[in-house]
Amino acid sequence: MDIKNIFLDRDGTIIEDRHYLSSPDQIVFLPGVVQTLQAMQAAGCSLFLVTNQSGIGRGYFSLADYQLVHQALLEMLAEQNVFMKDCSFCPHAPEADCSCRKPGTGMWETISLRHALQANQSIMLGDKQEDISFGRNCGFAASILLGTGKGEKSMAGLGIPPLPAGWMEPEAPDLPGMPAAVAMDLPSAWQWLQQRYG
């Protein structure tokens, strides 16, 4: 596969969106996610987690709370032989106007320098418009919008109807903010990736 790096949002993409998740016991993987991450690794892809966590900056939970959840998530993945190559998060509230909050490219700049990554070998997967814009701003090969989490709301904002199954490619993927593909969930997005880049 030409794609070597897969960047993943967290809430609503690999785990259920709990609205400012702050406790490890709230972690629930979305259906098919673990198996899909295993398949991505088996295909030689490196996995990277990039997540906005404005709940810290807003005072809804502490940095220590986030770190407990993050460590529990990594341990749960490791039990299934899934390993993130690297992870980055933005703790700031939107009004902080930082460079690390998606769709800003700060998390990509940090991770790409650390691992000598190429943007044209990278993909972004997420359920929100900011995830798609992040991938586009970073110059990734493609960004895929998922229908899980806040995905249906994000699709509606782009004038894309909800998907009953599988995936589709928008008629005008080059329009600002438009994903290269829309997929019902992470397993469907992986099917598109294999067809497009396999």
How is this structure best summarized?
The chain is an alpha/beta fold and 198 residues long. It is 35% helix and 16% strand.
Structural notes for this entry:
- The protein is α/β, with parallel strands linked by helices and 198 residues long.
- The mean pLDDT is 95.
- Helix 1 (33-42) links the parallel strand 1 (5-8) and strand 2.
- It contains 7 helices and 7 strands; from the N terminus they run βαβααβαβαβαββα.
- The longest helix has 17 residues, at 63-79.
- The protein is 35% helix and 16% strand.
Total strand segments: 7
Derived structural class: alpha/beta
Rg result: 16 Å
**Helical fraction:** 25-40%
Strand content: 15-25%
- Overall geometry: globular
Q: Show unreliable segments.
A: none
One letter per element, helices H and strands E, the order comes to EHEHHEHEHEHEEH
Q: State the separation between the terminal residues, measured CA to CA.
A: 5 Å
Largest sheet: 7 strands, mixed
In which order are the strands of the major sheet placed? 3-2-1-4-5-7-6
Helical run tally: 7
Round the mean pLDDT to the nearest integer and report it: 95
How is this fold's topology laid out?
Blueprint: E1 5-8, H1 33-42, E2 46-52, H2 54-57, H3 63-79, E3 86-90, H4 106-115, E4 122-126, H5 129-138, E5 142-146, H6 151-157, E6 167-168, E7 181-183, H7 186-197
